[in-house]
Amino acid sequence: MGLLSDPNRRKALTTLLTRLNTPICVVCYLAGIAWFMGLAFEPFTLRTYMSENAMGSTMVEERFPAGERALATGREFAGHKRKAGGMPVDWLVKTMQDRGLEVFTQSFSRTLPFPDENKERYMVRGINVYGILRAPRAPRTEALVLSAPCSPDNSNNQAVGLLLGLAQYFRNQIYWAKDIIFLVNEHDLIGMQAWLEGYHHTNISGMDYTPLQGRAGSIQAALSLELSSDVITSLDLILEGLNGQLPNLDLANLFHAFCQKIGVMCTIQGKLQRSDWDTAEGYTHAVQTMMLMVLKQASGRPWGDHGLFLRYHIEAATVRGVNSFRQYKTDTTTVGRLLEGMFRKLNNLLERLHQSYFFYLMPSLSRFVSIGYYMPAFGLLATILLLRALDLWVQLGTPTEVTEDGVGEVEPVSINNQGSFDSPLTHIYIDLYSKRHSTFQMLFISGEGTEQGWRVLKLVALLYLAVLLGCTALINFSLGFILAITLVPVAACVTPHLPKAVSALAMVLLSPGCTILYCVFIFQELQEAPVSLSEGWMLFLSVISQGILDHSLFGSLVYPLLALLVYPCWLLLWNILFWK
Amino acid sequence: MTSGCFVARVAFGVDARVEKPNDVTGPVSSSEPGQSESAAVSSGGPVAAPVSEADEPAEAAAGGAVSPPDQCDEELVLRPLRSGDIYASFQFRTQWDTDFLHHGKKVSHYRLFPKSLGQVLSKFSVRELHISFTQGYWRTMQWGQPFIPSPPGAELWVWFHNTVEDVDGNWKELVNVLSGIFCASLNFIDSTNTVQPSASFKPLGLGNVTDHRFLRYATLPREIVCTENLTPWKKLLPCGSKAGLAVLLKSEKLFHSSFHSQAVHIRPVCKDWQCTSTAWELRQTLNVVFDIYTSGQGKKEWSLFKMFSRTLTEACPLASSSKVYVDVTDNPEGELFDLSPVTPLLSTAVVLGDRRTYSVYDLTKKETFGQLRSLNLVLRWKGESGDMLRPLLHAERYVAGFGLQTGEIHTLIYNNHPYRAFPVLLLDSVPWYLRLYIHTLTVTSKTRENKPSYIHYQPSKDRLRPHLLEMLVQLPPHSVTEVTVQFERALLKWTEYTPDPNHGFYVGSSVISALVPSVVAMDTNSTQERPLFSSFFPTKEESSYFVRVYTEPLLVNLPTPDFSMPYNVICLTCTVVAVGYGSFYNLLTRTFQVEEPSQSLAKRLANVIRRIRGVPLL
């Protein structure tokens, strides 16, 4: 700690940092990227494991037999849906009642701020139907939710059929300790939002809805089911929720464990796991899977109906059946058995899921990267900002010291010698004060147009960006990291002395807006659905409008974050480039 | 008042002669203003009788020709519910013709009344005791009103005799003793979950003591009820589980149900219809609802054998009456279900504001059992299961909001009566760790504010007592009244958190007591012989009947630290302290001095030489 008290050594350090600033920054940047890419390398990741004992050791037997009947119910549902031209409320109510559930409905309406062109809706009006299976001898304090969206097109009928089939089967079992809510929500996320707000009696999005008549206590976990074909090849697990929130990792582990037990192919981000991690292809595959997760998480939107549960501290995930052209098919009975197993284990829970991780990235379904491993990647990028800030700080302090070098160092010391200020801390105060004083002077008095002026402005911008990105990364690592990748070089390099045209172009290309555009292309590429430039542009526009919609409908924070906090920072940097 | 005192003192004197006086509680009479006179007047002779009969048979004759022994009745009501489920309600009543409380003497002879309870009554000067253990929540919307309602978990309320000086001490000992008797964790009842309701729980027996200082009420919403609670409960029965209706009480079937509730109610009652003397009544009730889906195995058919895996072969020999009632009100023509064997005996009773018709099977009569010598009631459903009911009064409760800082408790009370308004008493007991913001309390009916005419609020004290909120609210006809109050979740001390595998923190049910307007005239004539199930709550008016509704308990999550954190915290703080403290200490204590540049040896030598030469130093 001689560093703090010994002026010479301190000086040596600052000179070192100032002199080697650029190389250190470059190394940090490259190291940050390399660290991030290394996260997908299997030896560096951890194998997932079940933390929650109640779900781990207890064996449950899955006996759901009625897949065919569930499909028939699904077809019946499809017929009634066509006839009713929307949600067949009466039929659903009656069917659920026949299965011995307590059935309730909730109607809701919402006018969007502007028409949603992706889903072609503007004034949304719908009805949610839900039935509660009351657990025998349970006091209505805890519940689980199984939901299936009722979509306007001809998809997802099988999901509703399976939901009703499971309801019938579950009703005849004696072992339930938690009530189970079977929910069919209309207009996907909007219906789900209305139902959740009704259930918790909150109104954060200005939705009109009728109050719920029946409740079942605090919801412990939820699964959303999407199934559009009679047979499936694999089940995809979707975890990313609103604002990049993720459910407890144990929920993913549970799904994975049952897939392996029952023998269903399971994927995450639509990607199967590969065993050849030591080959280049295997590694690339893992990187792609992880990048998809990062991009989805960064978007801050709920990627399935489960995404809205997370705000209420309810662990939730969406299970989506995928039917591709593989040979190996899984029938609905097996999917039903899988869900039955998951529900029985969730039913066994003695506590909320809290044992495992809430912050993680998954390069495959059996591997994860915890927050302690991925944060350094961001930390390395953020260090650059701090180093540049330090450099500027030193530069700003120098003029006063350069001219009267010997005096600056000796004078406070002589005061000490006289005995009135005995403490070296005073020395630091004086030192800092004199610097800050000059800084303020520069900022407010002589700031405009001078060389000092842009330095001060850049210092402020750097610190602001560092704090902003740091906070973002804590909440949503992916968003923070992606923003850091593009904004940090800009913030680190920008000075008024660069060639204007070229740097302006570079700045525009590295602006948050363009970052979104690249993300769109990369995302499409990773999903193996590459798009042309014009298609990409259209997608980009729709992503922006979706972002604004998500903000006004569900309270997603990405749009206000970019518009109100990140862009102003970028404009500061722009200002530095064109400093006069 | 004076005459009451006088008579009671006489009674005391009589006692003293009959048995050795045991002056534990002192002369009770002087401090007993509210005791009804007629009871006191007549208590002398007959009360002493059974005691003397026991201890000193020679004096039994002197005690009088009137020496009615203890009495015991048993009863089972089966009510087919519209949902297809079936509700079975057992009631066992034991009447104990003694009255030790009035005389402060010890009673050491027991006939039918369980000794364990009798000793508890006398030791702790209990006037009334009501305890219930319930597993499950009564679904009013599907099942209608139960005969005797109870909240999920354990509920205990006790009126102490008004001579008791240290009520809290007695209460504490009493719950520990009861905890042992019923094998339940009643010992978790302490001052943090005990309240003294001012209006909601009035004595149900004789005596009009209403000073709520002598009342204690507590619930344990998380109490799990299972066979270990059933066994001691069955042991209190006069015939045990050997004979009579109690043979049906097999735990493997009773706990294979949707709802299970067992209770013990002890209160002083009139011994006969003239109320010339008092007696202790012990009512043991057991309510169970069987689910057609899980135990019906697909067939819509119920029988005693299917429900209880036993049939009835005899009445309890000690019981003076033993009856099985089947509710056939909705089934006059047999369109809903078939009941066999058919009984010619029908009885009507006014229960819960409704005139119901029951088929009665009297187990004391031989012909009831038929040729097979066993009674197996069979009920075959014909109709479809009906819609949900609209009971006149029901309630629900939930926690609104999200996050771990604040929340809001909503209580919805439904009055489904088309044109009558009626008042209800709402009792809420909320643990201290939910800090109620009482200024946010709102009561709204039909979107308008509904001002309660009576509010009794006792704020909580941290770690000492819970919040108690009692309100008298008028429910407009055909309306939903919503009571909301906001709360803040307290941060507990780290030792106060329950062990890690916990569901959360429970808040007991709120209790809604009301006199609900009745469709038919209620029976106010208490002298008449009535079935047990219709005679628990005393009715005073013809036009209304008493109903108590319990809401569901709440499960609340409190902000819980990650308890693996202390290790990390210790590591982190140690590091911070070591590094930070070290360097700061260093900075604060170090003094700086301008140091003369130290000279090398050669230089010093040169200087010495120079000084000698008288040349200026280097």
UniProtKB/TrEMBL annotation, chain A:
UniProt keyword list: Disulfide bond, Endoplasmic reticulum, Glycoprotein, GPI-anchor biosynthesis, Membrane, Transmembrane, Transmembrane helix
Single biological process term from Gene Ontology: attachment of GPI anchor to protein
SUPFAM superfamilies: Zn-dependent exopeptidases
Superkingdom to which the source organism belongs: Eukaryota
Membrane topology: Multi-pass membrane protein
Compartments, as annotated in UniProt: Endoplasmic reticulum membrane
UniProt KW Transmembrane helix keyword: yes
Membrane among keywords: yes
GO CC annotations, alphabetized: GPI-anchor transamidase complex
Endpoints of the signal sequence: none
UniProt pathway annotation: Glycolipid biosynthesis; glycosylphosphatidylinositol-anchor biosynthesis
Principal cellular location given in the protein's record: endoplasmic reticulum
Alphabetized InterPro entries for the sequence: Gaa1 (IPR007246)
PANTHER family: GLYCOSYLPHOSPHATIDYLINOSITOL ANCHOR ATTACHMENT 1 PROTEIN (PTHR13304:SF0)
Subunit structure: Heteropentamer. Part of the GPI-anchor transamidase complex, consisting of PIGK, PIGT, PIGS, PIGU and GAA1. Interacts with PIGK.
Cited function: Component of the glycosylphosphatidylinositol-anchor (GPI-anchor) transamidase (GPI-T) complex that catalyzes the formation of the linkage between a proprotein and a GPI-anchor and participates in GPI anchored protein biosynthesis. Binds GPI-anchor.
Protein name stated in the entry: GPI-anchor transamidase component GPAA1
From TrEMBL, chain B:
Superkingdom to which the source organism belongs: Eukaryota
Pfam families: Gpi16
GO cellular component terms listed in the entry, alphabetical order: GPI-anchor transamidase complex
GO biological process terms on file: attachment of GPI anchor to protein
Composition-biased stretches (Low complexity): 38-52, 59-69
InterPro entries associated with the record: PIG-T
Compositionally biased intervals (Polar residues): 27-37
Name of the protein described by the UniProt record: Phosphatidylinositol glycan anchor biosynthesis class T
